[in-house]
Structures are given as structure tokens and as C-alpha cells.
Design goal:
Elements (H helix, E strand, L loop, with lengths): L5 H14 L6 H14 L8 E3 L6 E12 L36 E4 L4 E4 H10 L4 E5 L6 E6 L13 E3 L11 E3 L5 E2 L11 E3 L5 E2 L7 E4 H10 L4 E8 L4 H5 L4 E3 L1
Parallel strand pairs: 2-3, 9-13
Antiparallel strand pairs: 1-14, 2-12, 2-13, 3-4, 4-6, 5-6, 7-8, 8-11, 10-12
Helix pairs in contact: 1-2
Length: about 260
């Protein structure tokens, strides 16, 4: 008889333990497995800001959370989709969504940002404007989160890739992404800039599309100092006209 793989054994143990719990539901099982897997993921390292880069200077950060289970298990019943191409036109959360994730910010597989009350408290203390927090009825201390202010991207420098033909109704493509290329800002932010915004463009495919959340360099530092967890940062650049002029004045450092 073939030996069971370690993954099969782990899943079997989890399901056995959950079977003896009262009021077990499929959501309980899925959420427990998600949290167990996330514990083995690599935790984000201290924020590393590369101020000098051959592609430009780093002026902001993409806030990139870890994934949690889908908000809508059946995308056919998801609201906010184009009736023709079924791409996301508007993110409309399911307020009955259940999660017990301990991450301060996470994103569902279908592109909904979920935050805990610690993240909201941080934002309230800082006085950020234009942030939408909608409490989830079945998830104590959790909120659907979306910034309303749009981050001004340099659309001439940023590479945006599309797959398929644009929809005749909503104009969406089947897939939209950067293809691993850098995102550039139209504004030269500084180290003291403190904001939370989002991209106007929605990325990835069909009903999973969502914007990127962009934060200032000061905001990124404050988030880590506050002890928020469950995410990492990617760089947003500003393209210099003369790379050699400012690069000598700028240094690389970790915080």
C-alpha cells in the first residue's frame, strides 16, 4: 500500500479535529486550513527602501497583502460584474463573508481587501481621508477596505499589458497586468509623504480584478512601527530626466 503524503496526513488530521467540534461548517474548515497554511508562509522582512535605482527613485510603496479564501464561492452570483464579459466593474463586498484571519490586512482570492480593527485604528489615528471601511456582519472586528483617492500613475512610463479584446460594454480586458514591469508615479513624492490611495486600473483577470493599494514612504514606515502584519511592500518609482544628477545624493538604507 502506498504511503500517504505529508499533506494528505495533515489535511486528514485537521478534518478529524474539526469533526468533533460543535457547529462545524464548511466555512470553518476552509478558514482553518487557510490559517494553518498561512502560518508556514514567510513573514515579511523589515522594510527595505531602495532610494537609488537605475530605473528611477523609489517614491511610494505598493501594499501587498497575503491571500485568504474567496469572498464569493460562486462567481456567477457575484455582483458588480459586467453582464457581457463578466469582468469586475465595481467591487461590491459580501457582508456575510466569514473570516477569522489574524492578518491586519489581507486580500481574498477574488480581490477584496479585508482588514482588522487594528488597521482601521491606525488609519483613524493618522487621520487619513477617503478610506472606506465596511464592517462584516459575521466576522468580528473585520472590515471590507477600499481607498477612494486615486494614485496618479505615469501612464507613459508604466507598462500596462492586456490580454484579449476590450469588452464592447465595459471596456475591460480579460486580463490586465504589468507583466513584472515597474509602476511609475506621475508625482515626485518625498520621504515625508503620508497617504493611502489606490490605482485607477484594476489588475488580474475577470471577476478577480482589483486595484493596487499605494502608500507613501512615511506611511509604510509608520505601519511597520505600529506593528501591523500580514503584508509586504513593492516599490513605486519616479523616473528621473537625468539619472546621474540625483543618484549620487541618494543612498540605500534599511529601516
Amino acid at each position: 500500500m502506498k504511503k500517504m503524503s505529508l499533506n494528505n496526513v495533515a489535511v486528514s488530521v485537521i478534518l478529524f479535529v474539526l469533526k468533533i467540534r460543535k457547529n462545524m461548517t464548511f466555512d470553518n474548515v476552509a478558514d482553518f486550513i487557510d490559517r494553518t497554511i498561512n502560518r508556514f508562509k514567510k513573514e515579511p522582512q523589515p522594510l527595505h527602501i531602495v532610494i537609488s535605482d537605475p530605473k528611477g527613485i523609489v517614491v511610494a510603496k505598493i501594499l501587498a497583502p497575503y491571500d485568504i479564501k474567496h469572498m464569493y464561492r460562486d462567481p456567477k452570483n457575484m455582483p458588480g460584474l459586467c453582464p457581457v464579459c463578466h469582468c469586475t466593474v465595481e467591487k461590491i463586498p459580501n457582508l456575510d463573508y466569514y473570516t477569522s484571519t489574524d492578518k491586519d490586512i489581507a486580500i481574498t482570492y477574488d480581490g477584496f481587501y479585508i482588514v482588522r480593527d487594528r488597521f482601521k485604528l491606525f488609519c483613524d489615528k493618522r487621520g487619513y481621508e477617503g478610506l472606506r471601511f465596511i464592517p462584516l456582519k459575521k466576522s468580528l472586528r473585520h472590515f471590507y477596505f477600499m481607498p477612494e483617492e486615486i494614485f496618479q500613475m505615469d501612464k507613459e512610463t508604466t507598462v500596462t499589458m492586456h490580454q484579449g479584446e476590450p469588452c464592447s460594454v465595459c471596456g475591460n480586458y480579460f486580463w490586465t497586468g504589468t507583466g513584472g514591469h515597474n509602476i511609475y508615479s506621475a508625482i515626485r513624492w518625498g520621504e515625508d509623504d503620508d497617504f493611502i490611495q489606490r490605482t485607477e486600473e484594476l489588475y488580474t483577470s475577470k471577476y478577480n480584478k482589483s486595484p493596487f493599494v499605494i502608500v507613501g514612504l512615511k506611511t509604510a514606515r509608520l505601519m511597520q512601527e505600529y506593528g501591523l502584519k500580514g503584508f509586504y511592500f513593492d516599490n513605486i518609482y519616479y523616473k528621473l530626466e537625468d539619472q546621474g544628477t540625483d543618484k549620487d545624493k541618494l543612498v540605500e538604507r534599511s529601516i
